[in-house]
Amino acid sequence: MTGLPRTLARARTPQGELALRERVADDGATVHELIVNGAFAMDSAEVASELALGDTLAQAAGPDGRVLLGGLGLGFTADRLLRHGVGELVIAELAEPLVAWAHAGITDRLGRVAADPRVRLIAGDIAEELTAGGPGFGAIGLDVDNGPDFLIHEPNAALYGAPLLRAAYQRLVPGGLLAIWSERASPALAERLAALGRADTVIVPVHRDGHAIDYAIHRVRRAAGHPAE
Ligand SMILES: C[S@@+](CC[C@H](N)C(=O)[O-])C[C@H]1O[C@@H](n2cnc3c(N)ncnc32)[C@H](O)[C@@H]1O
To answer: Hey, which of 36, 137, 160, 161 has its CA 20 to 30 A from 152?
Structure first.
């Protein structure tokens, strides 16, 4: 990596400090970094798994489908979903400043996502959307932490527990898909999803800073013909 990161914006949130930084990589590319509560949440240098999450959600929702996404981050998954042609995308993002920065177009991608007429960008906890009533979603994606075994926000532990997973499952239309990003496969999460329906785990192998990493996307599909409860 060349050059020190430059802070584009920072803000205090109830969950700690949020910062969006920019640096120039060895190949001259501009890289954005999101730092949440002092922890590295993600950067734009390697986003294969964020894009894979968008692909699997879009495929499940189908053309013009409705998708609920937890965690805006740098907007890669959301942007991918929009490029696939989803009809409606509801995004819940816990960090209110990030929502404001997206509306202000702090990066081209975040600005594009926030301005898309198919997007409803909510500053709030995805847990509230999962438990709210309303029409079902063709796909629901969660990418809010480094995974169930490496939480950035401790309260997010509940998102990976059986009651909220069941709530998420019940917000799916029949045949809909719940997909959860994790920095490594979590057998305990896979087991909880398998208790709900047809579950599997997709491994996305990547190379980062000279290391091979197997990111995981845990999925469960709601049975077709299984009406919303
Ligand atoms: C790793 S980033 C998401 C990356 C995103 N998939 C992308 O493509 O850029 C995680 C995001 O989830 C947000 N977040 C954390 N906990 C949340 C929660 N309970 N509800 C909604 N958003 C949350 C964080 O503020 C952060 O913006």
So the answer is: 137
